[in-house]
Write a structure and sequence with these properties.
Elements: H1 21-39, H2 44-49, H3 54-66, H4 70-93, H5 98-122, H6 134-141, H7 145-152, H8 163-182, H9 185-209, H10 213-217, H11 224-237, H12 246-270, H13 276-297, H14 305-312, H15 314-332, H16 343-376
Helix pairs in contact: 1-4, 1-14, 1-15, 3-12, 4-8, 4-11, 4-13, 5-8, 5-16, 6-7, 7-8, 9-11, 9-13, 11-13, 12-13, 15-16
């Protein structure tokens, strides 16, 4: 059996950074997909009624519908970075300090996570239908809010609703480091392949035993293949950027976008959230799209500081964006009857919601998150993104 590499005391560990600015840009793109799903997912008829050619209307509808799979891109990106970080730490130090890893994740995730929950509970505006009761609050407090969605369905309009996917990531952060600490690289590959098998098997079991699309969408096991995609890329690349031609990167990005758009198209035109086609082909296509997109981005030259900054505050962007949409909807008095909307209303909703989300997230990063990130540095062994 292969064993993890032993630390050589004659070679002092050097703290090297694994920061890749291009992945901050990808973080923002993942968020923006989810944001578009929540703000621009209009029926085809809305566009057609405003004189948009049907073919373009269908593409817009499909692309925005596919935007919700930005959460799977987040999963793949997080698993890639965490696996790469853990392996580098093990190779540099000879072992993993799992306790330090947990402390770093707590300091990064918990302050904003629990702040959003508190605001949702205390401010009735962000839970207008009084849906976010104890049956949701308690699981969210215990970092298992996604399982409350599986059990009870998702609330229709709650400020904290995006946090279900953060619960999924927290479950991964809890279980993965002790596994990596005990497995060789080859065994980690087997573990990731096993996750892909579990994801597909779980989706089949949900299909035959449940008629709830939320039981599938919020289920941790259903997203394991996207998580496995990031793990496999981390093992395959071994800390390096892939040496591929620009045309190949572009082709991979196009293929990934096409897969997501087609997934969105079939989701909206056939209502196939729970079908054999989705189970056997749709979800694997999403995981493949995440893998292709992430692979194409690693090593991509991104030199726009504003885009890197938006990626840096993407946790806040994702966590606050429903709050901000709810505020803008009230300001614009949007009643969610699409046939009454105008393009002006739609554009104002997009622009103001995004601007407000960026502003709130920037303040949150500076005031709430940054002090904890500075404290997190005390428990960092392998450097990643600078604060």
């Amino acid at each position: 059996m292969s064993t993890p590499p032993k630390h050589n005391p004659s070679k002092p560990a050097v703290k090297r950074s694994l920061y890749r600015p291009e992945l901050d840009a990808l973080r923002f793109i993942a968020f923006f997909g989810v944001f578009l799903f929540h703000t621009a997912y209009y029926p085809v008829g809305f566009y057609v009624s405003h004189h948009v050619p049907r073919i373009f209307a269908e593409v817009l509808n499909a692309a925005t519908a596919g935007g919700k799979y930005g959460v799977d891109l987040f999963f793949a990106l997080s698993s890639y970075l965490i696996t790469d970080l853990l392996i580098r730490e093990r190779e540099q130090y000879g072992s993993l300090d799992v306790r330090f890893f947990y402390l770093r994740r707590i300091l990064r995730i918990w302050p904003l996570y629990y702040f959003v929950i508190i605001i949702t509970v205390l401010v009735p505006f962000f839970d207008p239908n009084h849906e976010f009761g104890l049956k949701y609050v308690l699981p969210f407090v215990l970092l298992s809010g996604n399982w409350a969605y599986v059990a009870f369905g998702g609330p229709n309009r709650v400020g904290a609703s995006p946090l279900w996917s953060v619960s999924v990531e927290e479950q991964f952060y809890l279980l993965w480091p002790p596994i990596v600490a005990r497995l060789s690289r080859q065994q980690i590959i087997y573990a990731a392949l096993g996750m892909i098998v579990i994801a597909n098997f779980s989706r089949v079991m949900i299909l035959v035993s449940s008629d709830s699309s939320m039981a599938l969408w919020a289920n941790t096991f259903a997203h394991l293949d996207s998580i496995a995609a990031g793990i496999l890329l981390a093992i395959m690349l071994h800390g390096r950027a892939p040496s591929i031609r620009p045309t190949t990167r572009i082709a991979l990005l196009i293929c990934g976008a096409v897969c997501i758009t087609l997934r969105g198209h079939f989701q909206t035109t056939t209502n196939d959230s729970l079908s054999w086609g989705t189970t056997l082909f749709g979800w694997p296509a999403v995981a493949a799209a995440c893998a292709m997109t992430l692979f194409a981005f690693i090593g991509l030259k991104v030199e726009q500081p504003w885009l890197q900054y938006l990626g840096k505050i993407s946790y806040g962007l994702y966590s606050y964006h429903v709050f901000c949409i709810m505020v803008v909807d009230r300001l614009l008095e949007i009643q969610h009857r699409f046939r009454e909307h105008t393009f002006l209303h739609a554009a104002l909703r997009e622009i103001i919601s995004l601007g407000l989300t960026i502003a709130v997230s920037a303040v949150s990063y500076a005031v709430l998150e940054k002090p904890f990130l500075k404290l997190k540095e005390k428990f960092t062994r392998v450097r990643s993104r600078p604060i």
